[in-house]
Task: inverse folding
């Protein structure tokens, strides 16, 4: 029991919104950290992944410690008794966001997010859509009131990113900050830039 409680787990959800690279890179950043990753990727995410990155879903699944099928609603992450530190949905589609907000979930991904909320654990949604209409904004407000963190992947130009990869790493580093995890990729305001190895070498 004490051993199970000591395991730090983080659920990573990847939906079919544009920006599947955020989920892929998040898994890469988590690999060297003391966290057990649980991945659930929607069917539409697999399609978007191939179109946007050329990566095969199998390659992304290999980055996670545990992989759950999107239709497996009996998976451990569908229950609040399965202890986790929370969940990140990167990217999060508007449809998935709406399902999570309503509590009427149709997949393991949105069910796991709903469980994260009901257990008062941290849920971070990298919502990828623009422009947003009033309905979208009201849904975001509802989720915020429920305890979710709405974190659209907006670039931080003060970090002076030279590449798209640096922009992605800054965003995901700040996302992991929300869980008390330091990826070594964040250029912090008022602090010197991180060395390329994140200060670990």
Result:
């Amino acid at each position: 029991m004490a051993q199970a409680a000591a395991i730090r787990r983080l659920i990573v959800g990847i939906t079919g919104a544009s920006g599947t690279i955020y989920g892929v890179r998040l898994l890469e950043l988590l690999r060297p950290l003391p966290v057990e990753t649980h991945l659930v990727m929607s069917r539409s995410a697999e399609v978007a992944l191939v179109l946007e990155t050329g990566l095969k879903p199998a390659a992304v699944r290999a980055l996670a410690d545990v992989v759950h099928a999107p239709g497996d609603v009996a998976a451990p992450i569908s229950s609040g008794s399965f202890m986790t530190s929370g969940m990140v949905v990167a990217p999060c589609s508007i449809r998935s966001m709406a399902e999570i907000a309503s509590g009427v979930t149709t997949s393991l991904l949105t069910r796991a997010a709903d469980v994260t909320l009901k257990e008062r654990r941290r849920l971070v949604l990298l919502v990828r859509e623009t422009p947003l209409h009033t309905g979208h904004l009201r849904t975001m407000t509802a989720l915020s009131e429920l305890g979710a963190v709405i974190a659209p992947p907006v670039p931080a130009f003060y970090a002076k990113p030279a590449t798209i990869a640096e922009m992605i790493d800054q965003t995901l580093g700040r996302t992991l900050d929300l869980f008390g995890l330091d990826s070594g990729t964040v250029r912090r305001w008022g602090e010197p830039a991180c060395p390329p190895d994140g200060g670990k070498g």
